[in-house]
Amino acid sequence: VLDSQYGMYVWPCAVVLAQYLWAHRRSLPGKRVLEIGAGVSLPGVVAAKCGAQVILSDSEELPQCLQRCRSSCLMNRLPHVPVLGLTWGRLSPELLSLAPIDIILGSDVFFDPKDFEDILTTIYFLLEKNPQAQFWTTYQVRSADWSIEALLYKWNLKSIHIPLHSFGADKEHLASSSLPGRHTIEMMIISLA
């Protein structure tokens, strides 16, 4: 997908998160996985192909992203993967009625600082409802001034940094992009503190 709008492009973070899922594929069968901000849905599709029960979600305000999720599922022979409109920071009937989950996925959701608290509010809600769950997320380092540390503390969340070399994702071809600029990718797992 060559359209570089938010949810219409396979961003390098999605490739790195997909690599993490592939490296942990033996632990995925039967796991209940929710991908937020899924867009093209590469991590969710990989999780589903590895045997996880996956739900894909993107903003209910972005119907083209929801359609992209559905298209990705169809192209990958996963026609029964549910796609939900979930908007970060908003309690909705879809969010409230979600079945239990084990893993939340989010690749490059920490893109715009104005969304950081809404994302973590949603993650906190999901983790409170599913205390053993974890949020596996990859993000591109865009500014040294952007940090979620204070928000993690505020929402009683903790993070563990996952070195890319620990799952073979430190290769240039995995995290590269044809788009201009730096593309330093990081990964962390967020859970209740």
Could you please describe the fold and organization of this structure?
There is one protein chain. With 193 residues, this protein is of the alpha/beta class. The protein has one domain (32-192): Vaccinia Virus protein VP39 (Rossmann fold). It has helices spanning 12-23, 42-49, 63-75, 93-96, 116-129, 149-154, 172-175; strands at residues 32-35, 53-58, 83-85, 103-107, 134-140, 157-161, 185-192. The chain has a 7-stranded mixed sheet with strand order 3-2-1-4-5-7-6. Strand 1, helix 2 (42-49) and strand 2 (53-58) form a beta-alpha-beta unit. Helix 1 (12-23) runs parallel beside helix 2. The protein is globular. The relative contact order is 0.18. Keywords: Chromatin regulator, Cytoplasm, Developmental protein, Methyltransferase, Nucleus, S-adenosyl-L-methionine, Transferase. It holds the Pfam family Methyltransf_16. GO terms for molecular function: protein-arginine omega-N asymmetric methyltransferase activity. Interacts with HSPA5, HSP90B1, TUBULIN, UGGT1 and UGGT2. Interacts with TET3. Interacts with STPG4.
